[in-house]
């Protein structure tokens, strides 16, 4: 009995430092990846069945399948890509500036989750009000989809709060959770969509994202203590985050002098990332 209790205490001691972040990270990734897979089907169905007033039966043949496929390709390759690229670049730069000036990572992690939750609520409305234009959903997703910002912020946060002994384990754990979320969402998205439909699937994603948001807001420990910085409300944080002067100063990060080899490595890694992500989407 004592041996079992000691083993339980040891396991709890190992995983206790990770309770504040990793569960919320896993829930957000699962919600994000599941909604991404359902999104393509939603765009296709809304474009094919524009005359319907309610969510259609997926077993019904599409009226204009070619037009739906062309529309989805157009949204993914043009409008949504440009919106995501612009918004993500803007927030990454501002987040870097905010972290540098405040020493805080919590705001950079929580903001993408809040925006993603808003976007999921919008997708629920799109599923319920079938007559709404699909372009509204596409633009809304482009302006609120900051999954890259969340991923980068999470890595920086884990590196900031971990010791040298913990860092490798925690970084590996984040990658394992990412891969697991991809596998689970890929395997369950089709079943959920056919069994429960678009609306209920998006409601489930919204619940996951909302729980993650609340968990991060209440339990995520910041990288600085109150004695190191003055307490700031959300209003002041937002003003500092979207300060145009800070934006101009932050863009200097892109033109910072680096060794030639470092620039080549960054460019090669970026190219590999684009090729790998494009293959996954295809």
Characterise the protein shown here.
- The protein has 282 residues and is an all-alpha fold.
- 78% of the residues lie in helices and 0% in strands.
- Helix 2 (22-48) runs antiparallel to helix 3, helix 2 (22-48) runs parallel beside helix 4 and helix 3 (65-102) packs parallel to helix 5 (134-144).
Task: Pick out its properties.
MFS_trans_sf; single chain; membrane; transmembrane helix; 282 residues; transmembrane transporter activity; mainly alpha
Q: How much is the average pLDDT?
A: 73
The N- to C-terminal Cα distance equals 54 Å
Helix vs. strand class? mainly alpha
Rg computed from alpha carbons, rounded to a whole number of angstroms: 21 Å
Number of strands: 0
Determine the fraction of residues in helical runs and give it as a percent range: over 70%
Shape from CA axes?
globular
Largest sheet: none
Assembly level: single chain
Helix and strand pattern? HHHHHHHHHH
Can you count the helices? Answer: 10
> Which residues form runs of ≥5 with pLDDT under 50?
none
The fraction of residues in strands falls at under 5%
